Every structure is written in structure tokens, then in C-alpha cells.
């Protein structure tokens, strides 16, 4: 739905040739980072056709002024810019904004970008090549954290998981093993799995999509180059999701996707987390657990 003041996406989205890659950019009060973010779109060395699809989720700062400034620069370099949004009193959330940005875009592949992050020039080129080879996979990449010393342990985990661990560690992590700000996939596969949950603030829309992706047999691939500056700051949307919410989704997915295939299982080293896991399981799952080794 387009609010007054936003041109219809269809009118903005006309192009003489099919678009290969759409960069999907939801925006909400991002004036502090947008110049650097949009500049990184302009600097991409991908030689195919590319568009930037922006959905402004009720920003009250100068985000739209910055976007309009960059629109001319981007289109002057051959990157189509599609802008949608609304100016309601309150934002409708990241899931809604991503879905809207995807709906108004036309590329065969989707490159997700957060408005506070910065792409390295080779990101679209390298991830597009990987996505062509793996059409039913989510393609991620390694990241460089900003500030450099923030979440050091988490950043090492993101960057150093072995290919098989991208799947085996989905139950031990606090979120997707291929993190959302690095996602790249085909539009056809996104349409098969999605859309994102639009529950709004506090809903881990990336984790829910990730689980559905795995349910439908999707693969996980990481380009082992640092292709994204991944910014950490108190206002990031990820901080609105409670740890207990993520835990609940993780346990339910474990019970759905793994435990039905096991006759029994053991919780080793049953400290605080092990006891918490046991208490979180349904009665049926607890019956399969025959010992808690300490």
C-alpha cells in the first residue's frame, strides 16, 4: 500500500531490460548511516543490471531527503531506484518493510541490506555468482563488525563456522547461522519460502523465515570473504527481540525438525542451559530423554 507522497512502485519500476539483482533496503529513521549505506550500493562492481528497492517505514528524520539525493546519483550510474513507503504515526516493522520492498522490486535475485550496514564493492557480484550455482540456498558472507571490538565472540562464530556447521549448529545458535544482513537468494526461492512474518517489533522474522527455509529443503552457503560492514548500535532492530522469544522458537524447531527422528537422546553436561532445555521440552519429547549426564 502506497501512502500519499510516494509514487506508485510500478511507475518507478519500469525498465527496458529485466533486472538481475534487486537490493532490498527497508528504512526507518536511518539518517545517521544512509549516506554510507547508499554509497556502498553505488560502488558495487557487479556488471549485470541492478536496482535498489527502498521502503521507508514511517521515518520521522531526514531519511527521505537523503534517499532523494542519492536517487539521482544512483540512477545516473545505471542503477534503477524504486521508492515506496508510508508516513503513518508508527512503523509497521522490519518484516512488513522487507515484504513491501520485495513486492515493488523486479530483480531475479534479492540482495538484503540493512540501512545501517555497508556493502563491500564485490558483494553483489560474488553472492550473485554463488546464488546462480545454488538456486535453493540462502547465500551469506563473512562480516566485519563496527565498532571492531563489539560482539567479538559472535563475530568469530559468524565468520568461522565450517560449511557443515551452518546446518548442524542451527539449534545451538541464537539465530540463523547465516545472518540476515548478509542474505542473498533467488526471488523464486524467496517466493517459495516466504513472505516474512509481519508481526512487527519483537518478532524474529529472520529466524522464522530461516526455519521455514530449512523445512522446505533449502541449503545454506557462505561466501568466505568479508563483504559487509555489520554495524552494532543500541538502536538496531535486533535488540527489540527478547532472548526468551528466540529460545522458544529454537526449542519448538528442535522438537519439530530433529527429535522426531531420534528414538532417545541425552542432554550432556546438564548445567543451567541443559536444565532449561529439559524444562522447555514438551512432555512427549521429555519421554525420549533417558539421561542427563553431568
From TrEMBL:
SUPFAM superfamilies (UniProt xref): Nucleotide-diphospho-sugar transferases
GO molecular function annotation: hexosyltransferase activity
Domain of life: Eukaryota
CDD domains recorded: beta3GnTL1_like (cd06913)
Ranges for domain Glycosyltransferase 2-like: 22-193
Family matches, as InterPro entries: Glyco_trans_2-like, Nucleotide-diphossugar_trans
Designated name of the protein: UDP-GlcNAc:betaGal beta-1,3-N-acetylglucosaminyltransferase-like protein 1 isoform X6
Organism per entry: Balaenoptera musculus (Blue whale)
